[in-house]
Design goal:
elongated, 13 helices, 4 strands, alpha+beta, about 375 residues, Alpha-Beta Plaits, 4-stranded antiparallel β-sheet, 2 domains
Length: about 375
């Protein structure tokens, strides 16, 4: 039973997903579709030039005169495929599969047309295309199989009463044989292509994760100090017309760590981060710049930033954790309207934040010294 199931899964993977896993196939479906769209455009142009060359050659070489109808029909389909790739597929991406099928079938149909019109001159064209066709696009084996089966039906119907019986039988057998070779070769090539796309997508994801770790704080999901320092440099070089810097600091973090445990301190850090993110919703420049220190850089007037601070105050007032009943956050704000340069604005926001922190400890009667860590401002 298990062997049957495994065989069924392998066959399904072979036919539908380029011999890779479905999850991987789904992962690279979009980039593969973009690559196939480009391939349809480029191959349409390239093959059109080939048919034009064949037409010119048929004018000078009498042996190829009878092939002209096949050349003209093939050229028309190639031009049609090119126009569809430029003007239809770009607007309706789901039509790519249809035009891809038509283009590939036209290649095999052209070979059949040449074989029917003048089998003694160009019958091998059909066999060559039968091998090349499955490798033109990054595609599933089933798609290639459908094209070849459709071409086989056309060959049987078109050639049965036109080509001599012995040549027809020989051609039919050879076409089936070369189609099988083409499908096997095409599947091997496409499997390698799909694997390259999967690898490329994995590389992109890895690069994104590395970038995120480089600029984001793992614990809170906010941007980190490195991102904050780069943002300050960016503001110095190209400042907006008006912006505000808000500094924030958790009150009582060390006391929570010492009296309850570091899990309580972590809860205060994540709680403060969530409240800041909710209060400054839509602002992507929120930074955790220290253990319990945060900064928000907000473009726009100070009045708008103060409205966000009011929301922050309400969120903090109603916040409650599992280990901590309260969250206290001191904030300070400064605007580019009143100060020049990021250093001056940051210094003023920092000063205001520490004034609020001082007032908090005075009004609550807490011992501030128990909540000051080595190297932190008094």
């Amino acid at each position: 039973m298990k062997d049957r199931q495994r065989f069924s899964e392998r066959l399904k993977s072979y036919l539908f997903y380029g011999s890779i896993r479905k999850a991987e196939y789904d992962q690279v479906h979009m980039p593969v579709a973009k690559a196939n769209h480009k391939a349809l455009t480029y191959w349409s142009v390239l093959v059109s030039l080939f048919w034009i060359y064949c037409l010119v050659m048929s004018l000078k070489a009498p042996d190829y005169t009878m092939c002209r109808p096949a050349y003209l029909t093939a050229l028309g389909v190639c031009i049609f495929s090119f126009l569809c790739s430029r003007f239809v597929v770009s607007r309706l991406p789901d039509t790519l599969a249809v035009f891809k099928f038509i283009f590939r079938l036209s290649l095999l149909g052209s070979g059949i047309g040449i074989a029917v019109c003048q089998w003694n001159v160009r019958s091998l064209t059909l066999f060559a295309v039968a091998i090349i066709s499955p490798s033109i696009f990054v595609d599933s084996t089933l798609s290639s199989l459908l094209v070849h089966c459709s071409a086989l039906v056309i060959y049987i119907l078109a050639g049965r009463n036109v080509i001599a019986p012995d040549i027809y039988t020989w051609g039919l057998g050879n076409y089936i044989l070369f189609s099988v070779f083409g499908l096997l070769i095409g599947n091997a090539i496409n499997k390698e292509r799909f694997e390259r796309y999967v690898f490329a997508e994995s590389e992109k994801k890895l690069a994104e994760i590395q970038r995120r770790y480089a600029y984001y704080d793992r614990m809170t999901g906010l941007k980190n100090r490195r991102a904050y320092e780069e943002k300050l440099l960016e503001l110095e070089k190209d400042p907006p017309s008006e912006y505000c810097i808000i500094m924030a600091d958790i009150n009582g973090l060390k006391a929570a760590n010492d009296s309850i445990g570091h899990h309580a301190g972590d809860e205060l850090i994540t709680g403060a981060s969530e409240c800041l993110a909710a209060a400054f919703e839509g602002v992507d420049t929120i930074y955790r710049i220290g253990g319990d220190e945060y900064c928000v850089i907000m473009t726009g007037p100070e009045e708008k930033a103060r409205q966000c601070l009011e929301r922050l105050g309400e969120l903090i007032l109603h916040w409650k954790g599992r280990c901590n009943d309260h969250l206290y956050l001191s904030t300070g704000i400064a605007s580019s309207r009143d100060h020049s340069g990021t250093e001056a604005i940051t210094a003023e926001a920092d000063k205001m934040m520490y004034e609020n922190k001082k007032n908090f400890y005075m009004s609550t009667g807490r011992d501030r010294r128990k909540d000051v860590r080595p190297g932190k401002k008094e």
